[in-house]
Amino acid sequence: MTNDKVGTGPRRSPWLVLLLVVGVLLSTGAAALIALAATGVFPAWTLGLLSVGIWGPLSVAAWVVLTRQANRVRRIHTNGTPVRATVTEIRQTASRIGGRSVLRIELSFRLPSRGECHAWIRTAPPYHLVSMLRPRVELPALVDPADPEHPMLDWAAAERETSPA
Questions:
Q1: Where are the domains of the chain?
Q2: pLDDT tens for residues 38-61?
Q3: pTM tops 0.85, yes or no
Q4: Do residues 129 and 113 lie in contact, with contact meaning Cβ atoms separated by under 8 Å?
Q5: Are 129 and 154 in contact (CB under 8 A)?
Q6: How far is residue 165's CA from residue 161's CA, in Å, rounded to a whole number?
Q7: 130 CB-near residues (< 8 Å, 6+ apart)
């Protein structure tokens, strides 16, 4: 079985690698400061530098969360089942990504293995496709059959559908 979507998914971000490296360096630096301050090699004021040390573990935790999300998106792009999702409700959120408003959209779709499914997603649609969003509109989506609670609207396919041939 061939997969036409191979290579079309999002690529790994170099920023994620940088985040992990910074997190590891800050974490090990904080651990070294603790060890040296405990032995008396450095004066006690160096413990004040440990306030910087919290950024190491936070960077590593952020890396874990962002990497999981990137892997989920990549998995859906490569293995996702294409479906037609019907918009049932749209809500505005206070968030913005790259100047675009983030919307909370309820979708209903049918999977052959599970039947009718419903899910809420948060997405920042492209500016030129926002006008097509309204209840009862069908949009192309990708769904991981193992995790149908987290579908993803396929904005590239929606753009192809609305563009003149």
A1: 14-76, 82-162
A2: 776 666 555 555 555 676 777 778
A3: no
A4: no
A5: no
A6: 9
A7: 101
Contact 36, 50 (CB under 8 A): no
What's the N-to-C CA distance of the chain in angstroms? 29
Contact 103, 94 (CB under 8 A): no
> 29-52 burial string, b = 16+ CB within 10 Å, else e?
bbeebeeebeeeeeeeeeeeeeee
Query: pLDDT digit string (tens) for 103-154?
Result: 999 999 998 888 899 999 999 999 888 888 999 999 999 998 788 888 999 9
Take residue 130 and report the two structure tokens written for it: 């926002």
Residue 102 exposed, middle or buried by CB count within 10 Å (0-12, 13-18, 19+)? middle
Q: Per residue in 142-160, pLDDT tens?
A: 998 788 888 999 998 998 8
Provide the token pair at 119.
Answer: 């899910």
d(CA 36, CA 54): 17
> For strand 138-144 and strand 81-97, is the pairing parallel, antiparallel, or unpaired?
antiparallel
**In angstroms, rounded to a whole number, what is the distance separating the alpha carbons of residues 112 and 126?**
29
